[in-house]
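Please, structure for the following, as tokens.
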Amino acid sequence: MTGPIAHDPLAHDPLAHVRDLFDLDDDVVYLDGNSLGAPPKAVAGRVRDVVEQQWGRRLIRSWSEGWWEAPERVGNRIGRLVGAAPGQVVVADSTSVNLFKALMAAVRNTDRSEIVVDAGTFPTDGYIARSVAELTGLALRPAPPEELDLRDTTAVVLLNHVDYRTGRLLDMAALTRQAHEVGAKVVWDLCHSAGVLPIELDALEVDLAVGCTYKFLNGGPGSPAFLYVPRNAQHAFEQPLTGWTGHEVPFAMSAEYTPDPGVSRARVGTPDILSMLALDAALDVWDDVSLADVRAKGLALTGHFMRLVEGLPGIGVLTPSDEWRGHQVSLRHPDARRLVEELAERQVLGDHRPPDVLRFGFAPLYNTFDEAERAAAILKELL
């Protein structure tokens, strides 16, 4: 992992030109890319083409002219960003649905008795894990990542790569190894790390992973999520939602379900083509981008902002100051909600997490050091 680096705000930024690919107002400091990424300029025109030409002129013929294979094609583009070789990532459904598929597949036919979940997990992950536990009769045990206490009774561990509240980054290599040492599987939630830092799912032998695409991948509100199933585990990936598009021969309309032999078995229903192809267009901004540059700039941006806000009246910094952080800075203040609202009135957009957390997400593809300084200066004025 790239370590912390010192930053000179006047130094060369290798990603500065990428900002021009986004549709952003210059008078807005947008620091909420960890909730909804900004739109790349190319998306509007691509969606217009999909509606007016592919749907409007080609009509149903478009299904055989690229629509049907879109979940796998777009999945391969995301796979490059998370360290997965082609044929192991599919784009479909929502993060919650994909998480349900992954956890159910992980515990199917197990003789183990518990699911372990990150005690501070994003709520939907906890809800889904509890549903899986109730459906399968397994126990659900929340535990802090530093005190997992995994045992030979643990079937699967569900972990968030980056904590959504604090921005803390977990050690994927060490925790995956820890799970495997007791024979457990691990499912990683990449919602706050995909598009943030280099991820090596294949190299670390991760069992399963899910993630959304509307945050740092800029796919748009409600854009479909992704699911990673490594090639050597696809034959045994038996997910509970056996919909027709996951069939080996979908258009045979067979009464019997036979899963596709590859990652397509993770598909369920008809893909949302408008959102899927908007995401496809959004991913173009990554074509010539180095994830090492993204990570270095993200650490520099967040580090620069933290140095500027440390010591402000009533402010506590929750985000780790070392390299074990994602690309967000979480601050604590008793009037967090009011501050976020007043910042928005001054055109600085972050968000609030009850009761007292202010979150600022820094997307290295379009955020600048000048914006970090402007946000910190306005926060100082409000305090």
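The first helix runs from residue 42 to 55. Residues 39 and 190 are 20 Å apart (CA to CA).
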